[in-house]
Amino acid sequence: MMYNLLVDGYSKSGNFDAAFSHLNEMCDRKVDPDFSTYSSILDGACKLGNVEVVERVTSVMVEKKLLPNRPLSEYDSIVEKLCDLGKIHAAEMFFKKACDEKIGLQDGTYGLVLKALTNEVRTKEAISVYRLISERGIVVDGSSYHAFADVLCKEERSAEGGRWREAEYLLNAVLDKGLLPDLICCSPLVGRYCSRRQIDSAIALHNKMEKLNGSLDVTTYNVLLSGLFAARRIEEAIRVFDYMRRHNLMSSASFTIMIRGLCGVNELRKAMKIHDEMLKMRLKPDAATYKRLISGFQVTLSNLETRNEDEEAK
């Protein structure tokens, strides 16, 4: 066990001379290095792109029958074993070899590699594997997709320029497969849509989440409601608010936005109904905000009365 730890540590740091020295010491002491020991060196060499060490350790593993001489039919088991040991760079090397040599891998192997790369937050490599999965019509287990989608969301929050477009495409693709990532994953993208007045895109994404019974965080919902009212999409704002209600995702700010928005389009009855619901739920805003809210009611009512008087005068 101690030797394995030493070999692993030296391999990770790129000190392969020391790693091989400990291998020789193990052999001198009649302690046989196993698959795990050699795979540590292989993984380190793959990570650092040391082709010479990769070839050397692979040759030794074949000689000791830890790897088959021609692994055409055993790529799946090799990749699985390396993934289980956490030797992801080595697993990725064999995975790429199989793909380059057009050797058919099991669907589960694709899922294993996708999940392994995702867990190491190697997003660029995970995206490449996901594209292979999509292009080849591979079916992988839901947990692999979930892990991948969650990492995409984290990437999305810090994405710049073209990365947003890629995150958008992949997140939509995951949702289209009927898989729901972490419940707040889509919030940054919806918020970005709203800030850029891309309300159609925001609603389309929310509709996909709604079909899967997913939801955004309350702050993002409030941004979406404001965007819908600014675009005069009243019915959609009401529908989104109803969905928020069903998921118990309303705040004092949510009610305030709805009441102001409905007053702004002279929907006083609907605004009053939501006002009463707000009070019943004890979500009344602070005194200054509430005063402005009531003032808005009065202004809207006064405008309606003036309009009615003008129409009667005609």
TrEMBL record:
Annotated signal sequence range: none
Designated name of the protein: Pentatricopeptide repeat-containing protein
Keyword Magnesium: no
Membrane-spanning segments: none
Keywords: Repeat
Family: Belongs to the PPR family. P subfamily.
PPR repeat extents: 1-33, 34-68, 217-251
UniProt source species: Prunus yedoensis var. nudiflora
Keyword Lipid biosynthesis: no
UniProt-listed NCBIfam families: PPR (TIGR00756)
